[in-house]
Amino acid sequence: MVHIIKNIKRPAPDVLKAVAEFPPATLHEAQGRTGALDWRIKPIFPGMQFCGPALTVRCTPNDNLMLQAAISIAQPGDVIVVDAGDSPEQGPFGEVLATAAKARGVAALVFNCAVRDAPAIRKLGLPVFSIGLSIKGTVKETLGEVNHPVVVGGVHIEPGDVVCGDDDGVVRVRAAEAGAIADKSREREAKEAGFMERLRNGENVLDVLGMGRVLEAKGCSWES
Amino acid sequence: MVHIIKNIKRPAPDVLKAVAEFPPATLHEAQGRTGALDWRIKPIFPGMQFCGPALTVRCTPNDNLMLQAAISIAQPGDVIVVDAGDSPEQGPFGEVLATAAKARGVAALVFNCAVRDAPAIRKLGLPVFSIGLSIKGTVKETLGEVNHPVVVGGVHIEPGDVVCGDDDGVVRVRAAEAGAIADKSREREAKEAGFMERLRNGENVLDVLGMGRVLEAKGCSWES
Amino acid sequence: MVHIIKNIKRPAPDVLKAVAEFPPATLHEAQGRTGALDWRIKPIFPGMQFCGPALTVRCTPNDNLMLQAAISIAQPGDVIVVDAGDSPEQGPFGEVLATAAKARGVAALVFNCAVRDAPAIRKLGLPVFSIGLSIKGTVKETLGEVNHPVVVGGVHIEPGDVVCGDDDGVVRVRAAEAGAIADKSREREAKEAGFMERLRNGENVLDVLGMGRVLEAKGCSWES
Amino acid sequence: MVHIIKNIKRPAPDVLKAVAEFPPATLHEAQGRTGALDWRIKPIFPGMQFCGPALTVRCTPNDNLMLQAAISIAQPGDVIVVDAGDSPEQGPFGEVLATAAKARGVAALVFNCAVRDAPAIRKLGLPVFSIGLSIKGTVKETLGEVNHPVVVGGVHIEPGDVVCGDDDGVVRVRAAEAGAIADKSREREAKEAGFMERLRNGENVLDVLGMGRVLEAKGCSWES
Amino acid sequence: MVHIIKNIKRPAPDVLKAVAEFPPATLHEAQGRTGALDWRIKPIFPGMQFCGPALTVRCTPNDNLMLQAAISIAQPGDVIVVDAGDSPEQGPFGEVLATAAKARGVAALVFNCAVRDAPAIRKLGLPVFSIGLSIKGTVKETLGEVNHPVVVGGVHIEPGDVVCGDDDGVVRVRAAEAGAIADKSREREAKEAGFMERLRNGENVLDVLGMGRVLEAKGCSWES
Amino acid sequence: MVHIIKNIKRPAPDVLKAVAEFPPATLHEAQGRTGALDWRIKPIFPGMQFCGPALTVRCTPNDNLMLQAAISIAQPGDVIVVDAGDSPEQGPFGEVLATAAKARGVAALVFNCAVRDAPAIRKLGLPVFSIGLSIKGTVKETLGEVNHPVVVGGVHIEPGDVVCGDDDGVVRVRAAEAGAIADKSREREAKEAGFMERLRNGENVLDVLGMGRVLEAKGCSWES
């Protein structure tokens, strides 16, 4: 088995740009309610957001050796997605690696564990999503994989898939479907913009969203 | 059984106003340390606060059909309190429904699940309390109840009860007791203001709060 | 047994000052990856930080009697570290005690439970670290201990040990080792500053941190 | 307020007997999927089961004073349901109180906290349901309530309601509806017995439960 | 998209038989420490075990419609693996479906949610692995997928992959690698049998497992 | 620093024997409600129990190198207490090491992580206490400590302290206090035996335990 795959296929820039227009919640709906990572994976400070192609890493839990290898081959705009064993009490990423990632132009990092040096990362302005913050660093002893498929937050992610995050969390869009999902997201947002315009104008939500008929069909009874 | 009860009795405006003067922690003490919802139910962003009469909803988990019905009958100032099954991996409330709720004048919403579209809700300025944020939307298939009693965060809430929240969490005040609880809260705050004045002036906390005597009575031994 | 020990040995001011220069994550590494409290113990609002000698308290769960005794003997700069039973649904510390602590010059408080009156504590500008916020107050009935050793967040803390916290969490430095740990932290930060300078200049992370050799020695295989 | 209410209305023996025929999962379905306590409340050893009228207790967390009062007035067949603050690290019930409860003929006890002395309770043959086992005993300092309504495991329980438990967990049946729920449960079980007979005879599950039509109506597509 | 794929490729019987000889922990080691599902997925009663090809299902959370479709097409020996949204408070599988599964010859079922009717399932002798037991049934409203890849317990499982479970939990073996993994497991067990023979004969564990040299090489210091 | 201390002081056999007569819950009360490990640390199968002197180990999380060293120096009757970082998704102890421990006469092992090969350990008849079972093995790369003080389950344990466990969990008794605690436990059990005799004879629990007076003194009101 090859441990580290250096060259992966990334979606075309215009596709990435199209997907990046939409928040994760919209992308999730547009692809049939799939691809959302576990709700515990969140920005380390509110307001962070990102969108880019996944560079995937599998570390042995409590070990960040392969993360360093991954940063060493990252391309500008990449999002490094790390499976480190889904546990909050380990911080394999801190100020030094954040500086390295920033210098490579990494767009964001996503972890199923914690990270550390949060104040320094905040100052760097690098979006980092994790299941928490932990002081505890890791060792650098055991080989893993870079750019093999991973499961992070319950979602299967292949290198080059698009991953996007904001305060709601992180979603994965399959590389091959990214263009189509962007189109569906645009339609969805247009439709919802219409709904919201009508709602702001005072129309009743059951009329706007058509749920009055549904309630009636299901036998809903009202008492005034 | 009637699914949706439209007309509920709300406390008088002056009572609501009186209760709204006090933070939840004070109201909780004033009513004998009862009524505090589970600590996991918190504002989706720090600093949110609210106080108003409860409009209650019971949704089937992973289904927001009845929430839409509830918004359709909300009165300005209402706080919509939603029992959706106490699980963080579902987001039955997002930007469209937030727009609908805002247009109806809803004062706040409280969930025992997650919500989504957090950045958009923040922009709307609508206080929303939940056990987290989740990208994952819900279906609209199954009937539930509106304005029947619910249990949310371990607290039994009847339609028209007063619910109040801030960074500490959410508390319920029984409608019939709301006036009396406001009075007790006022007394409590006055007493505590006196304590704090003395503390700021350098008096010892054991003297101010009277615990020196208690420690002595219980046989506390001191080593200098 | 004596319940309350009033006089404890605190590290010299210059030692405290030296330790305070470094973030907890650095101190943790410098002392061989030990001393970090459980990741759940965090500032109640982002950005809080502190460093000072520990004044330790053991309360019966759901009881804050001994915390009041501890505040009554605190010295300016002390950090009150409270073992209250490691449970998030109790708030033994609120605005009144925060006012008392502030008046005594307490530098910070660390809890393995929740606290309440978060908005008021924020206004006071007092750093408080806990595993959450809870509306629910406690009783004042049962004796415990002040300035005996405690375990908080899985770490054994003796009165006078140095404790330091920021967004990453809290670390304990043994009083007797504090000076040496500050020295090691300074060396570590100097070394890391050099690394970061090289990284910002575009050098590859594997070269800077020397992990290229490690990967090779472990038989890591690369596919371009 | 009265702390302890001694006389409560219990359902008639034939009603209790009728409800006791059915497992909690059936009763839960029969009453419209309501009344099931939080999944964490389970028998302390597999195989325990019970059914009886609720005698309700509200203890201050970490305090078992009112539980003792409740046992002192229990009637044979009663199920003591204890709200002690929903936290696993407290054991307000052990061998001595189990002996007292057994001597009073208590049918079972249900806690939203832990209990202790599990091996001794097992020997006594007393069904006890809790969210775990904990060595840690409690104090006896603070008043609470007996036979006032409580919320345990997210369910509102009034004194005299029927509560039933087995390995699946615990369900509450409203006293006034108990007879009707037993009838519905009997119908449901009869219907399900017919289904299971057909399934054991080799009929396809989609035909037996009628879901083939539902799948078709919803547009389900099959690939052979 | 096709919702339900009926025909999947299962490993040859002799391969399945070979894999079934080994406990999950051995298979996990043999395939390079991969494939183990989340530790929370366990037998509903101790002692259950199974090994067979995966028939995969993705249900909408709180909905068991597709599980019924999956049972309807199961082959004897299949293990039905269900992604229902990773939440313990839903029981989409009970006595009726267990009877249906048993009648089809299903070898076992694996869920990332809870199940119900545990006593009845136990009597049936059907191995069921889940993250708990919950009284709460589900609806049957929303389409999902059968025999598409799923992620359950953090592991990507394709239809026809081998899944095996015992008290330790569940492991997935890729269909294409199953034969080779069985061979490696056999070697591993033979080697370990030799180790254990020597240990039972009183040899020191550091000599038998060769870690004495490792400790020395890493600079381990001993104080007698 | 010395990594491994071989010779530790164990309590005298008669002291160990005296402590072993009592269940952990009694010992915990007898020493002033201290020393109980976190409720999550439990026997891997119900019914296991042990009592013996602690041989302490600190492993790097996800690494069992030092555990092997600890087993290599264990004396018959020792209880190996392992701090591996308080996380359930790692199994540093399985059949091979269990065989080694059994061969050395180890009385039991206590972990703040998971273990694996549960069925094999059960067959060996070796009491093992942990926070769960996990298939996932660990690496053997990083040094830690043997027979230095550890914190496990929130309790500070020194080598040679007595640790005892049963279904309720695990308690630590300080070596120097073990004899006195056994005496106090004996008194306590004698007193409780008297209470239980009176309870079995039908006396009211409030009279037997003297809480009737306490309730009255606190102003408890009764309604018949």
Structure commentary:
In chain A, strand 3, helix 3 and strand 4 form a beta-alpha-beta unit. Chain A is of the alpha/beta class and 224 residues long. The model of chain A has no long low-confidence stretch (mean pLDDT 97). The relative contact order of chain A is 0.22. In chain A, strands 2, 3, 4, 5, 6, 7, 10 and 11 form an 8-stranded mixed sheet that branches. Chain A has a two-stranded antiparallel sheet with strand order 8-9. Chain A has helices spanning 13-20, 24-30, 65-72, 95-104, 118-124, 178-200, 205-209, 211-217, and strands at residues 4-5, 42-43, 50-58, 79-87, 108-113, 128-130, 145-146, 150-152, 155-157, 162-166, 169-173, 222-223. The first copy, chain A, starts with a strand and ends with a strand. Helix content of chain A is 33%, strand content 23%. Chain A has 2 domains: 13-176, Ribonuclease E inhibitor RraA/RraA-like (Glucose Oxidase, domain 1); 183-217, no CATH class. Chain A binds chain C through residues 1-7, 45, 65, 68-69, 71-72, 88-89, 91, 94-97, 99-100, 103-104, 114, 116-120, 122, 132-137, 140, 142-143, and chain C through 23-25, 28-29, 33, 36-39, 42, 46-47, 49, 166-171, 192, 195-196, 199-200, 202, 204-206, 208-209, 211-212, 214-215, 218-224. Strand 1 (4-5) of chain D pairs parallel with strand 12 (222-223) of chain F, so a sheet runs across the interface.
